[in-house]
Design a protein that fits this description.
There is one protein chain. This protein has 365 residues and is α/β, with parallel strands linked by helices. The protein has two domains: 200 residues, Glycoside hydrolase/deacetylase (TIM Barrel, Alpha-Beta Barrel), CATH 3.20.20; 79 residues. The chain is built from 16 helices and eleven strands. Strands 8-5-4-1-11 form a five-stranded parallel β-sheet. A two-stranded parallel ribbon has the order 2-3. Helix 4 packs parallel to helix 6 and helix 8 runs parallel beside helix 10.
Length: 365
């Protein structure tokens, strides 16, 4: 119901010309779109915010073309943001992680429209060429037709059977498997665990692996995209950017760089924070590594005074309606955010000042 009301409100706003006005008011600001995986099978139903259907992506690209939103390379967009000469509606498309679906589905769609994209690639699984362990474990628990998990002889499973119809018990069992695999196994052991788990859950692990549903592109596929004009950039080696240690953070970036730069033939200066996690104290560390920009998962448009190490983006996905996407592109939602925050502050203040129900102030007679 809440989503339907929001869509109706946005449709009414568009009908009254507020989208057009918002686009004019935000004409000097940079839009950055964020995508992750592109579904090869049923991944969109499994994790709709993370995976989009290729048809959904093509519709978004068509909307950008129809609406006259110029799609720029990240370097050009940031340079023009600095100079103050961004074209109206300037947009950068970014894709995180580097799933195989980027090469198989997203790149051809972008090329059909003559669009480029910045692809932030994490490299551990690009080298290993095995499915991302925690993702495929979650997928198998989601996909399983079984109502019970019983594997008392396996060190990753509890001694007692797990009722998979109990959502809390299922989630506990899932993360116990992930924790065991990530802390007690090497990569070979994790793959063996995945096969064993698939047998107990009635899910074909080998088929998911062969179809590369949760695999990162190979180094050769990354090289191919770079040769086709796509902007390959940094996303750390193990999809983490430690906040507690400059040395650990530096190692993640340098390992990532050492693998990607020979593939693209140039120095890489742009980074995406893994899982959108960052802290301002990391900025001097990144500057020492000659990182010129870093993208977050915070929604919003980017102004000339936006820190280049805290660029905001709009995360598009299967859970985002077309009217919401348009509202974000036109800057309408950006202009509404301060108003919404102001309303919520007023409501919280009113609630804080009102006496609780049932006190003398509310007793009549």
């Amino acid at each position: 119901m809440r989503g339907a009301v929001k869509r109706a409100f946005l449709s009414l706003s568009r009908a009254f010309g507020l989208f057009h006005l918002s686009r004019w008011l935000t004409r000097g600001q940079l839009r950055i779109l964020c995508y992750h995986g592109f579904a090869l099978d049923d991944e969109t139903r499994f994790l709709p915010p993370l995976f989009v259907d290729p048809l959904h992506f093509r519709e978004r690209l068509a909307l950008l073309a129809r609406g006259g939103f110029p799609v720029l390379a990240l370097d050009e967009a940031l340079a023009r943001l600095d100079r103050g000469d961004l074209p109206d509606g300037a947009t950068v498309i970014t894709i995180d992680d580097g799933f195989y679906g980027v090469h198989a589905a997203a790149a051809p769609a972008l090329e059909e429209h003559g669009f480029t994209a910045t692809i932030y690639v994490t490299t551990y699984y690009a080298v290993k060429q095995t499915p991302i362990f925690r993702l495929i474990v979650q997928y198998m628990f989601w996909r399983s037709p079984c109502t019970t998990l019983s594997a008392p002889s396996c060190p990753w499973a509890p001694a007692a059977p797990v009722d998979l119809t109990d959502s809390r018990a299922r989630v506990r069992a899932l993360w116990n498997v992930v924790e065991y695999g990530e802390t007690q196994c090497d990569e070979v052991g994790r793959q063996a665990l995945g096969r064993e788990l698939g047998e107990h859950l009635g899910v074909d692990y080998a088929a998911a692996r062969e179809r590369r549903l949760f695999s990162i592109m190979t180094l050769e596929e990354i090289r191919d995209l770079a040769a086709r004009g796509f902007d390959i950039q940094l996303h750390t080696h193990r999809h983490r950017l430690p906040q507690e240690s400059e040395e650990a953070m530096r190692r993640e970036v340098e390992e990532n760089r050492a693998l990607l730069e020979p593939l693209v033939g140039r120095t890489l200066h742009h980074l995406c924070y893994p899982s959108g996690q960052w802290a301002p104290h990391q900025w001097p560390w990144l500057e020492a590594l000659e990182v010129r920009s870093a993208t977050t998962c915070t929604p919003g448009l980017n102004r000339p005074d936006t820190s280049r190490l805290a660029l905001t983006r709009f995360l598009d996905g299967a859970n985002v309606s077309t009217i919401e996407f348009e509202a974000e592109l036109c800057g309408y939602l950006e202009l509404m955010r301060p108003l919404r925050a102001w309303v919520w502050r007023l409501l919280r203040l009113e609630m804080a000042q009102s006496p609780p129900l049932g006190t003398a102030a509310h007793v009549e007679g």
